[in-house]
Design brief:
The protein has 172 residues and is mainly α. It contains eight helices and no strands. 53% of the residues lie in helices and 0% in strands. Helix 1 crosses helix 2 and helix 6 packs across helix 8.
Length: 172
Amino acid sequence: MARIPTIRSIDLAAVRKQLAQADPALGRVIQQVGAFTPDWRLDASPYEGLFRSIVYQQLSGKAAGTIFNRVCAACGDGKIPAPHLVAPIEDSTLRGAGLSRNKTLAIRDLAALIGKTVGFNGRIEYDTTKPDGTPRKLMDPGRLRALGWSPRVGLDEGLATAYRDFLGSARR
């Protein structure tokens, strides 16, 4: 049985080279900014990395780490909940652990997007009687654009491509 790719199993130097070849503007950004060094658990899956990124967004490392640990503890076994296990978690549980409404929604959206990408046919239910949060805050990509880079692939398409690649490698 094929192993699920992890951050540790990915050759980051090869990824940087491939990205620079595929997108010269991004290659220049990588050259100017420097190599990407993951600062989360090196055994995290890409889903776990995205989950962690949502929790850590716009917070200091120590505060985010505290909230992240609370979220994982509140979700059961101290680990990041699998995407299909996110829906049953009450908003009050996630909010009580320290997540904002927006981050709670973002985690639910991520879980739903992964479910859609992998063909999950179950039902994800949300309590629509609860408020749906404050207006979302968007990342300012101005610095990247000033360096000449702009995204060409959205999260939906990127996730679908990564999943197809995973399925192909799992069959090998």
